[in-house]
Amino acid sequence: MEFMQEALKQAKKAYKKDEVPIGAVIVKNDKMIAKAYNKREHSSATYHAEILAINKACKKLKDFRLIGCDIYVTLEPCAMCMGAILNARLEHLYFGAYAKSDAKGNILSSEEINERAGLNHKTVITGGILQNECTLLITDYFKQKRINNKL
Amino acid sequence: MEFMQEALKQAKKAYKKDEVPIGAVIVKNDKMIAKAYNKREHSSATYHAEILAINKACKKLKDFRLIGCDIYVTLEPCAMCMGAILNARLEHLYFGAYAKSDAKGNILSSEEINERAGLNHKTVITGGILQNECTLLITDYFKQKRINNKL
Predict the structure, then answer these.
(1) What distance in Å separates the CA atoms of residue A23 and residue A58, rounded to the nearest whole number?
(2) Which of B46, B58, B78, B102 to mutate to test the interface with A (most CBs of A within 10 A)?
(3) What is the mean pLDDT of residues B47-70?
(4) Which helix or strand (DSSP H or E) is residue B95 part of?
(5) How many Å apart are CA A142 and CA A139, to the nearest integer?
(6) Residues of A with active-site annotation
(7) Which ipTM did the prediction report?
(8) pLDDT digits over A91-129, tens only?
(9) Residue A150: C-alpha distances to residues A49, A144, A145, B3 (Å)
(10) Neighbours of A71 (CB within 10 A)
(11) Are B45 and A59 in contact (CB < 8 Å)?
(12) Is A88:A66 a contact under the CB 8 Å cutoff?
């Protein structure tokens, strides 16, 4: 829970900067080695929390393979970020809120990308960590956005 | 062809730095606005040519949405990069070599990610531009790698 709490703190930093509140933390041997929050609106389409955390961790370990590292993210990763998690060889993905999906399976889940990205490496995935807090933060952000847009 | 030629030039720069030779170029109104090559080994798991080109283009246009922009890449994008292309709202993806796939469809193609990433935006995809040159450069790189590893 401790690491997802830190990811939530990161997400709240994004919220304050009017970015979709998503945070990520990378952990090795029970120590946080990188943390980041979503900066898409103010920089680049690729600056999601996971990508920024992976960049920091790779820099720290001087390796593009983050062997023995786990990532905690407040929201189930998008296709780009799930691909990045696999490219970085992250061992375990813990996420909070579940991303939108549909009953017919028309939207790729992180689990399906994990299975079918074409890499030998697979990541263990556990969803729903502090799910309520993570989900509430995001729904609250979009609710506020709608209210502000009507003002 | 001109833009894929430039992407190939970028890929050759990666080759010289002992990186898998992949290059990317982003074009708006028939003008190149960003170019980049794969830097994964020397920096981060996310530093593929496409991600770096998208970051440069977003910085240049001061927008995470690359409306009216096309991307030229020497190799069919991985899941991370295809996700990034969609997140950046790129209009048209032109790629050179086809990525590995299998007959059973067990590996996600850029086309399938395009259809199922869960975004309203879709990218038009055209593969096989300067396919021979793009494919040869990559196979030559891995051939040389195997020879060097045996020395």
Answers:
(1) 17
(2) B46
(3) 98
(4) strand B92-97
(5) 5
(6) 50
(7) 0.95
(8) 999 999 999 876 666 899 999 999 999 998 999 999 999
(9) 29, 10, 9, 44
(10) 29
(11) no
(12) yes
